[in-house]
Amino acid sequence: MVTIRDIARECGVSPATVSKALNGAKDVSQNTSERIRQKAKEMHYLPNSAARILKNNVSNNIGVVFQDDAMSGLTHEFFNRILNSAKNELENLGYDITFISATIGGNSFVEHCRYRKCDGVLIVCGDFSSPRIQELVDSEFPIVTIDYSFERHSSVFSDNDEGTYEIVKYLYMMGHRRIAYIHGEDCLVTGKRLKAFHRACDELGLNIPDEYILDGVFHDPEVSRKRTEELMSLPVRPTAVLYPDDYAYIGGRTALEKMGLSVPGDVSVVGYDGNRLSQALRPQLTTWYQDAVMMGKLAADKLIQTIESKDRCKPERLFVRGLLLTGGTVRHIREDES
Predict the structure, then answer these.
(1) Which of 101, 167, 216, 292 fits a disulfide with 182 by CB distance 3.0 to 4.6 angstroms?
(2) The predicted structure's pLDDT at residue 70
(3) All structural domains of the chain
(4) CA 229 to chain centre
(5) pLDDT of residue 105
(6) Which of these, 152, 156, 149, lies nearest to 314 by C-alpha position?
(7) Strand partners for 156
(8) pTM score, whole prediction
(9) Which of 171, 167, 164, 182 shows the shortest CA–CA distance to 268?
(10) How much is the pLDDT for 53?
(11) What is the band of 54 on the pLDDT scale with cuts at 50, 70, 90?
């Protein structure tokens, strides 16, 4: 391993001068600093992270908690866009990331974070009511969460209220009055979307029967397939169906094809997320685009601000607005069809 002494020997300067140059000290001339940094690069020098932690009490390492109940891992496009964006931003700011597990370094997220000397933690996805996450939230670590808030920590939200509300308004504008909703599993996001769905329906004077609102599961096409079959088997079918996300809609699409029903000729459909899959389908899926890239960037920036300015950085809730993508899966229907 290349050391500061090796660089000093090659440059003909003292180890102290090398250390100052690599740490940006002002009392080393610009030419000497540039020569030392270039030599360090040529020799593939890497700073001793353990020594840096002891000296500055900073590891430049961010812990990431990512627990996906759907077991889709990093193939979940919404979350992987958040993670990739956060990773890029953190790297630009000089930080590495470590995925945190409850089975390494002890039996909790906190122990693993301490084991990895994390400066802070980004909780992207998980069971926020679990004791392990609550223990982490109550610990000494600066934390930023996605789509969930804790009193002492900052959080970044996709505006789920706005998204669902605008979808219902759009369907109403397109003539639909019989609107069904297959929503995600019981969680904070589902609660917000359901509340917005009912608020929009109430404001528009829509009386939605109970059998039009069905439990589904995020990112699970098989459950959406079954729920779609149930809806399309009702004596009075809905003219439009909302799905919990774009990927889950694939199951609904399969059910409709099997039943000989066309989109949007026989039934209109709307997804949620605005991922690349939705725009590759034909017809293009009408969906609500969540700006996952901005969410990841904001979360990373806020976490680093919190780490580097603990006394001055106050917890806050940051909301990222979305956009309705009007594809080809919603048909304008006449009053006698609604």
Answers:
(1) 216
(2) 56
(3) 4-47 (1.10.260.40), 61-158+292-321 (3.40.50.2300), 160-290+324-337 (3.40.50.2300)
(4) 30
(5) 54
(6) 152
(7) 146, 318
(8) 0.77
(9) 171
(10) 47
(11) very low
- Angle between helical axes of 221-232 and 246-258 (0-180°, round to 10): 50
CB 103 within 8 A of CB 115: no
Could you write out the DSSP letters of every residue in 162-196?
HHHHHHHHHHHHTT---EEEEE-SSSHHHHHHHHH
Distance separating alpha carbons of residues 251 and 271, to the nearest angstrom: 12
Q: What's the confidence (pLDDT) of residue 266?
A: 95
Amino acid identity, position 334: R
Token readout for 324 is 């309705």
Count Cβ atoms below 10 Å from residue 260 Cβ, excluding itself: 7
> What are the tokens at 288?
């609500």
- Cis peptide, bond prior to residue 264, ω within 30 of zero: yes
CA-CA distance, 290 to 325, in Å (whole number)? 10
Residue range 228-286, pLDDT digits in tens? 999 999 999 999 999 999 999 999 999 999 999 999 999 999 999 988 888 888 899 99
